[in-house]
Design brief:
Elements (H helix, E strand, L loop, with lengths): L10 E4 L2 E6 L8 E4 L6 E4 L1 H15 L6 E5 L7 E2 L2 E3 L4 E5 L5 H15 L6 E5 L6 H9 L3 E3 L1 E2 L2 E2 L4
Parallel strand pairs: 8-9, 9-10
Antiparallel strand pairs: 1-2, 2-5, 3-4, 5-6, 7-8, 11-12
């Protein structure tokens, strides 16, 4: 398993995989226009707003918050997690809904990123508490769920 150092080094090259710590994506708009080969439509960027809110929460607790950019060996396009907290280490993938398909997508993404970070805690960040069966699904994958609660988040660190 490849590791990203606990320090804030900007780049690590391990076994032909390139892993970088990069800044968190900034949110400049709450809506974006999408044109997937059909009539353009406007999509709300709920996920981005949730990520920014959680990022601000983590910073208020004294944590450095970044993202991982990973270029696996033999690939041409990098993959990015939504947030990475080097001190914990904590990998975060955010979803704008608690629908099963979104949660399943997040689980797959986290499994992909986790290969490059030794002993990382994985979290799915969602906008509200999911149904009990979704919570159970995530627990079986040894992944945590966080959502906004009161003036913070239901975190366990």
């Amino acid at each position: 398993m490849k590791t990203v150092p606990q320090a804030t080094a900007d780049e690590v090259v391990a076994s032909n995989n390139k892993v970088k710590l990069v800044p968190v994506e900034e949110q400049y708009t709450e809506r974006a226009f999408v044109e997937p080969g059909r009539e353009p439509y406007e999509a709300e960027r709920r996920e981005s707003k949730l990520v920014q809110t959680f990022c601000n929460y983590l910073r208020s607790k004294g944590y450095e918050v970044r993202r991982l950019q990973v270029l696996p060996a033999g690939e041409v396009k990098p993959i990015f997690c939504d947030l990475y907290v080097p001190e914990i280490p904590l990998l975060v993938e955010s979803k704008g809904t608690v629908e099963r398909s979104s949660i399943r997508m997040a689980l797959g993404q986290l499994l992909d990123y986790r290969r490059f970070v030794e002993q990382a805690r994985c979290v799915i960040l969602v906008p509200s508490q999911p149904r009990p069966d979704i919570v159970e699904l995530v627990k079986t994958a040894r992944v945590e769920l966080y959502w906004p609660e009161n003036d913070g988040f239901n975190v366990s660190f």
